[in-house]
Amino acid sequence: RDDVRSDLALTDDQKAKLGDIQTKMREKMQGMFSGGERPSREEMGKLWEGAMKEVQTEVDSILTADQQKRLKEISVQLAGNGAVNDKEIAKELAITVDQQRKIEDLQKKSGEAMRTVGQRMRNGEIDREEMRPLMEKIQSVTNDELGKILTDAQKARLKAMGGKPFVKAEGSTR
Asked: Which residues, other chains included, contact 27 with Cβ-Cβ below 8 Å and sequence gap of 6+?
């Protein structure tokens, strides 16, 4: 995203290297899902998690320590309460086993709602333009419900983890 690149004050060299990683990742993902059998949802999650760890390692090798810190802050802000789905962040927030169960249940319900909306679009009941606000509403409700699971101390810690406010570019939805 251009607004993130700007906030991080990336050099032209960093932008080029990060662009190469993005291209490589896109090609890798296309290769994983082209031809033949689609992996199960669980396998897909594992593939995605592994690919993201690989990308993160490469990105970290390009960014300065300050840029890495700021990128994490921006990620927390953009994810909102959904940042608790990141294992590292959940650990830092000391998410309890009970909270984790509630979070997983909420995410399952949210995923089901999103799949239902996607199916409605595939069935021709709604078009892509009608789908977007429905998906945004599901995300908003999920974010609000996640906030209800967190303690006040966890909410304050999550806000602090976001650092200084990030200003999204006009028209950015995430």
From this structure: none
